[in-house]
Amino acid sequence: MEKTMVEKTTTEKKYHHGDLSTELIEKGLQMIQQDGFDKLSLRKLAKACGVSEAAPYSHFKNKEDLMRAMQEYTTEKLYDALRTAYEKSPDPTNGHAIFDMGIAYISFFMEHPTYFTFIFNQPHLEVDLSMKGQDEFKAFRFFREKCYEIYRKEGYDDERIKYGVISMWAKVHGIAAITSLPCVKTDFDWKDVLERVLME
After folding, report:
1. pLDDT at 18
2. End-to-end distance of the chain based on CA atoms, in angstroms?
């Protein structure tokens, strides 16, 4: 009995000194993907992470608090992926940087399909397609702002850019949705055809 308590305490210290909150979020995303939002609970997450039932409450007040943290975590990760792709583009001042962000958008969700399901099933998510959108979905906001910034310099008027943004996002979002579906079967690797599909 004493040995079990020591092992349990050691496990919890490991997570607390590591990153239990991230572990809870990632495991939670997997649970939602498999069983749906309603089946998620902090108690189940604690068991999945190998910690006591009380441990998650050191990071999240309740399930709603955890859900908010999940939303922030996943959208921040997506934003970082787009920003990194833009900054690493050979020339961030031209349209190729937008193309690079499109590749990054799809690749991100290919690597994290549970994120796609979670992010776009949130009732409070808002994606504003208007030219001066004020949405809080910072990943899309970043993409939209860079599109206007780059294509204005190339001489396109705002009306054309607005519909270009809608078209570009629809394409990358649609492909990301397809790659995230477990029921979709292919005889190719998406990474081998991605650039060609986006260019057509």
Report:
1. 59
2. 65
Q: List C-alpha distances in Å: 82 to 104, 144, 191.
A: 6, 11, 17
Q: Are 142 and 79 in contact (CB under 8 A)?
A: yes
Alpha-carbon span 92 to 25, nearest angstrom: 33
DSSP-assigned letter for residue 1? -
Residue 121 sits at φ, ψ, to 5 deg, of -115, 10
The full DSSP string for 150-184 is HHHHTT--HHHHHHHHHHHHHHHHHHHHHHH-TT-
Each residue's pLDDT tens digit, 149-174: 999 999 999 999 999 999 999 999 99
For 114-139, the pLDDT digits (tens) are 899 899 988 878 888 877 766 678 89
